[in-house]
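Technical note accompanying the year-one report. For the benefit of new consortium partners, we illustrate the data format agreed upon in the data management plan: each record pairs a sequence with a structure-token string. No post-processing was applied to the example shown here.
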Amino acid sequence: MRLLIGFAWLVLLTAAARAQTGVVDRIQIVRVGTWTLGDGDKLVPARVTEMVPAQIGAVFGVEWRAIGRPLDGTATVKVRWTYPEPGMRHPVTRSLRPSDEYDFDVGIGTQTVTYLELHSGYMVIPGKWVLEIGQRGQTLLRQEFKMVPP
């Protein structure tokens, strides 16, 4: 019986170790700028810039690579977009929110593009936009964009 209980604990501990997320030590920026959406909504690089046209259809963000461990693993990072004052107004409730934040799973060593598409008029807010990506309470990437009239 003790052998069976010991084996069960070993299986649980192994499963828990596999479920742990990878660690991102740093983020390597590959490209900052704007993109267009091509066939099948494929991202096509447009310009290397921190200036974003304040118009519906603009696509902007950062192409980056997570550097960490394990090399072939995945990690969960926190992505936060902070909007210019006074914030983004919800189109239905009309409430303002200063930022949006979500978890994102990324492969260690793979290139990823984190971007926003201004698909509605309520998203067109001239001013300073900030993208932050972090893990374990540490900001690993902070990129500012300036949205300006086209």
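Partners are asked to follow this layout when depositing records. Residues 22-148 form a domain with the Immunoglobulin-like fold (CATH 2.60.40.2390).
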